[in-house]
Design a protein that fits this description.
Blueprint lengths: L3 E7 L3 H14 L5 E7 L6 H11 L3 E5 L6 H10 L5 E4 L11 H10 L4 E5 L12 H17 L12 E4 H9 L9 H8 L6 E5 L14 H15 L6 H27 L4 H24 L7 H33 L2 H23 L8
Parallel strand pairs: 1-2, 1-4, 2-3, 5-7
Antiparallel strand pairs: 4-6, 5-6
The structure holds guanosine-5'-diphosphate-alpha-D-mannose (GDD) and manganese (II) ion (MN).
């Protein structure tokens, strides 16, 4: 029976997975382990490479998710597939030091702990030769994280850690966000009881093969997750993202309107109509890459999605004006009437587009 499951999220890591498996196997000599890779249908054929490896070694498995994306949810699903009392999460790209695994397991066995974190920010840990801007960004994000953390963790952004399976399940049941990259932070911020933890230093390595998936979306998802923790999950996380995008849309609308109406002298009706179309389109595009990144529409699905989005928001606009006018006639409080109208419109747009524009796939 495996003592330890090593969970590895992968996206386009064909050139790393075999090497990672060999290194982990060498590091965990004498320990009963298994490796569960979770691949989001990487176009480079990572899943095929993983299945070939699994055919040669029963301790290796591949969960392939189709039509989904997300580092955190991949780790969560991998951990859920484990029967071992302890699970570790490690990146596939060889940037984390697999030689730390035995020491992590030993520490977890010996001391009354729930989590052992591979940390870049304690003792002789380090970030290798990151450039100044990436190091500064990481430090800033770490400082933000401390606002929602219930623990004095030096490296809450680490993607390399080991946790007891029961502690993980308790966090998951308490309502983890599962958004973005920062699963460790999610665990700590969600845990119903403070997690007992220890940080062990390691030196973050440079990536040799493949590319990092860290992009501006990751920053956005991080921000959304922090908001989710602040609001204690009362507001659906996608609705928060959708509303932020909506706020940006208002600015876009006003900008286009100002240019057309004020500077170009376009008649107000046309200027307002054009501004509405531009704002709806930019909202659609932004929601597609930010709010619904994991269900992102492309090709014809994108065109169809745009059409349904515009249709839904058109009806939403009627609902908005209808409610606002009705309330205004009733009590003449213009501001609260307007806000109520906007809210009703926003909830309508969100609910309808969540069902018709960005449908979750039927399986997976
Ligand atoms: N299944 C799946 N789905 N895996 C993914 C996805 C995804 O959408 N995006 C990334 N991965 C996998 C990558 O293949 C890699 O194995 C791992 O997640 C980390 O992705 P990188 O793109 O290499 O991220 P990074 O090196 O910039 O950041 C990592 O290290 C930091 C420091 O420990 C992440 O683990 C961060 O969370 C961590 O803070
Ligand atoms: Mn990496």
């Amino acid at each position: 029976m495996p003592q330890l499951s090593v969970i590895v999220p992968t996206f386009n890591e064909t050139d790393n997975v075999v090497e990672l498996r060999n290194r982990v196997a060498a590091a965990l000599e004498g320990i009963d382990w298994e490796m569960i890779f979770v691949d989001d249908d990487s176009p480079d054929g990572t899943a095929e490479a993983l299945r070939a490896m699994a055919q040669a070694d029963r301790r290796v498995r591949c969960i392939q998710r189709v039509g989904r994306r997300g580092l955190s949810t991949a780790c969560i699903e991998g951990m859920l597939a484990s029967s071992a009392p302890v699970v570790a999460v490690i990146d596939a790209d060889l940037q984390h030091d697999e030689n730390l695994l035995p020491k992590m397991l030993e520490t977890l066995d010996r001391e009354p702990l729930d989590v052992v974190v591979g940390s870049r920010y304690v003792d002789d840990g380090g970030v290798g030769n990151w450039d100044a801007s990436r190091a500064a960004t990481s430090r800033f994000a770490t400082r933000l994280a401390r606002l929602v953390l219930k623990a004095d963790l030096q490296d809450p952004m680490s993607g390399f850690f080991m946790i007891r399976h029961d502690a993980f399940l308790a966090c998951l049941r308490a309502g983890m966000s599962g958004v973005g990259f920062k699963i460790l932070l999610d665990l700590f911020a969600t845990s119903p009881t403070p997690l007992r933890f220890k940080e062990l230093p390691y030196e973050f390595r440079n990536r040799v093969a493949g590319e990092s998936k860290l992009d501006s979306n990751v920053a956005w998802e991080y921000f959304i997750m922090l908001l989710d923790k602040f609001t204690h999950g009362v507001v659906p996380i996608r609705f928060i993202a959708f509303s932020l995008v909506g706020g940006l849309g208002l600015l876009v609308h006003l900008a286009v309107l100002t240019v057309l109406f004020k500077f170009q002298g376009t008649p107000f009706v046309w200027a307002q109509a054009a501004a509405t179309m531009v704002a709806m389109t930019s909202n659609f595009v932004l929601n597609n890459v930010l709010t619904y990144r994991d269900l992102r529409l492309r090709g014809w699905a994108f065109v169809r999605g745009w059409f349904s989005f515009v249709l839904a928001c058109g009806v939403g606009a009627f609902a908005n004006v209808g409610v606002a006018v009705y309330l205004y006639q009733y009590d003449s409080l213009w501001l609260s009437s307007a806000i109520a109208g906007v809210l009703v419109g926003a909830v309508w747009n969100y609910a309808v587009t969540a069902v018709y524009t960005w449908k979750a796939p039927k399986v997976a």
